[in-house]
Amino acid sequence: MGKNPIVPFLLIMALGIGLIFFMSLYGLDQKDEIANEDTENTEVAADFDAASFSDAKCVSCHGGNLEGGGAPGLVGTALSKEELKDIMKNGTDGGMPGGLVPDADLEAMADYILSLE
How far is CA 60 from CA 54, 55, 66, 112, in A? Predict the structure, then answer.
């Protein structure tokens, strides 16, 4: 007669559940220590590169040269610096989402857009 195959399965399952339980308790004990490490090891962000940012975020809608695509062109725009910053921060009803550019970098991005020719 063969052995019952359910017994090893149940033992392995109980061991797995026990390990998950004890590992989660260990993680909860380390929570404050991990949070402190994260705040201590904050790195200074690199300088904002508006050209690289626009290549990553803007070209999909505004076109490869930012001359227009599904969204209006940015080259030679008639918008003022303040209008650009407002649009980048709050978005438009026409489909551009707000908040893509970090608030600290709105000025640099607006300067970059106004420098496009």
Answer: 9, 8, 9, 17
Strand ranges for 3-83 from DSSP E: none
Q: Which residue has the tokens 């949070």?
A: 35
Fold of domain 50-115: Cytochrome Bc1 Complex; Chain D, domain 2 (1.10.760)
Residues annotated in a binding site: 58, 61-62, 96
Confidence class of residue 12 from pLDDT cuts 50, 70 and 90?
very high
Q: What is the pLDDT of residues 20-51, one digit of tens each?
A: 988 888 777 777 777 777 665 555 556 888 88
Which residues are annotated binding-site positions for heme c?
58, 61-62, 96
Residue 74 has which token pair?
Answer: 């940015």
Q: Taken in order 86, 89, 95, 100, is the CA torsion positive or negative?
A: positive
Q: Are 115 and 73 in contact (CB under 8 A)?
A: no
Q: Are 49 and 56 in contact (CB under 8 A)?
A: no
